[in-house]
């Protein structure tokens, strides 16, 4: 049986793109609640980022230098379909948790969330599965 890489096992540029997309969701609200920041850091924890990489993500949050389309395209460039799907759905789940963490879905957050889903070709039925899993947590 073939072993597939998890998001935390991906190359540095893929992990950074993932974290930066989560960072864009974090900053979609001018003053994110603590619960959203905690959810963001949980998603980073799974990526096994080194100090230098975490610093790069924080610098990106303060001054984004790459657009969402480019970051998503980087994730979609992962060759193995199984690994690409794992990345796509892990990110969708992480940003969904961030979206709901403060119990207030702002317009900008929701818009960005749907842009990410479109860029990653994630269908509504997949989001319904994530919603269902979230309700059962």
Can you tell me the overall shape? globular
Poorly predicted runs of 5 or more residues: none
Give the proportion of residues in helices.
Answer: 55-70%
In angstroms, what is the radius of gyration?
A: 14 Å
DSSP E strands, number: 0
The topology string of helices and strands comes to HHHHHHH
Compute the number of helices: 7
The biggest beta sheet is recorded as: none
Roughly how many Å apart are the termini?
A: 30 Å
Structural class estimated from helices and strands: mainly alpha
Tell me the strand percentage band. under 5%
Mean model confidence by pLDDT: 91
Identify the notable features of this structure and list them briefly.
137 residues; mainly alpha; globular
3D architecture notes:
- It is a single chain.
- The chain is mainly α and 137 residues long.
- The chain is 69% helix and 0% strand.
- It has helices at 12-26, 34-45, 51-62, 68-76, 81-101, 107-119, 124-135.
- The longest helix has 21 residues, at 81-101.
- The chain is globular.
- The model has no long low-confidence stretch (mean pLDDT 91).
